Fold this protein.
Amino acid sequence: EAQVTQNPRYLITVTGKKLTVTCSQNMNHEYMSWYRQDPGLGLRQIYYSMNVEVTDKGDVPEGYKVSRKEKRNFPLILESPSPNQTSLYFCASSLFGGKGLKEQFFGPGTRLTVL
Amino acid sequence: EDKVVQSPLSLVVHEGDTVTLNCSYEVTNFRSLLWYKQEKKAPTFLFMLTSSGIEKKSGRLSSILDKKELFSILNITATQTGDSAVYLCAVGYNNNDMRFGAGTRLTVKP
């Protein structure tokens, strides 16, 4: 089944404790992206990657890191989480088409709480 | 600044009503506009629009894009309680940029 998976689905942690949220897709998509979703703000892009070893900042990259060592995986790293990073996080992947990005497929989301 | 604005932010209707959701945008080098439906989980894709004036239709849902006036509408006819969700508009621009609107929360009452 074609899908994007994320782990963990729920995480409660404390300020300053490094964490990684994993994301994997099995559709051979070149493009992968991380978003955070907060009430009233919609989805805001954190980082994206157009292919292996190619990553770029989105609208809200501060406090986050990513890597793309393999095509299927795109982990999100919070080196020193803070309470303002409490949010719902989505990973997504997509193909490129003639008109740029095509539809994105989203993972199930990771609800992160930083105390 | 590139932006995508959806209206209304929320809407409450009764089953059988027709609704129109709006998405306006200001971006550089527009490529595409996409609509997603988000229930209590991940967004799921509805439509992708790249050309003005061509309606996309799927059952009771339809959407159209106006590239001159920089907006799109999503219509839902004969609404059902299962249509209750947040509807997200996203705009692709430049080569790889994608920006989402804040969403419209639709509630359909029996």
About this structure: The interface with chain A takes residues 6, 9, 31-32, 34, 41-45, 48, 50, 88, 90, 92-96, 98-103 of chain B (CB under 8 Å). Chain B has a mean pLDDT of 94. Residues 34 and 48 of chain B are 4 Å apart (CA to CA). The longest strand of chain B covers residues 30-38.
